[in-house]
What does this fold into?
Amino acid sequence: MGILDGKCGIVTGAAQGFGRATAERMCEEGARVALVDVQINQVIAAVDELRVKGYDAMPIVADVSDETYTGHMIREAHAVFGRFDFIHQNAAIQIEKLLHETTPEEWDRVFSVNLRSMYLGARAIVPIMMAQGGGAIVNSPKCCR
It folds into this structure.
């Protein structure tokens, strides 16, 4: 029995790195977890690995910086789980260029993925959490390095 038995939620940026490790740890503690990432092959592989270990996980492919995809992410996971106890918003990107070499479009993309996505995810999930009496939102975007 884990401390998250019976809990359900979402981890974004879950195809690799910190998000992947967080999703696995939550599964180890008994949670049902939707792993969300824009990288289709990697997120499916991560879920397959968790399922082989006997965990209840599902993949969702979504660009969390896009309101349409965020809404889809929430609706799809809610249709399967029926509730949300947590969302860990971990998705992030970084630019490996000098500032003066970075285009405004690249700068905007970083802000969109690393910050706007936190707002969009919370905005979409809060009404569900409020209706069910609560839940936890953790915003911790971790980049590659």
Q: What stands out?
A: The CA atoms of residues 127 and 134 lie 10 Å apart. The chain has four helices and five strands. The chain has a mean pLDDT of 95.
